[in-house]
Design goal:
By secondary structure, the chain is mainly beta. 13% of the residues lie in helices and 56% in strands. The chain contains one helix and four strands; from the N terminus they run αββββ.
Amino acid sequence: MSEALAITHLLQNCKELSAFCSQNGWIINESIHYEIIERQPESLLIYVTFLESIMEGSGCQCDQKSCYGRLRLKFNAQAEIIAVEPA
């Protein structure tokens, strides 16, 4: 699996990304974008943006909020992502 595909898959499934939600809404996976800020042998620092879906009490979507933050992805010796933490 390519690095870009592995990072995208991770971001669509990791709970750490929800730390950047402002309204306790849902992350719209199709809106997730990232940029690599810093590359080190054992980690990457990335800047992530996405849209958060805000729901009404009736279950209807009432708004979308832009969210963003930085995550540090840590790698093992085989270059597999082993940890994600807000940076």
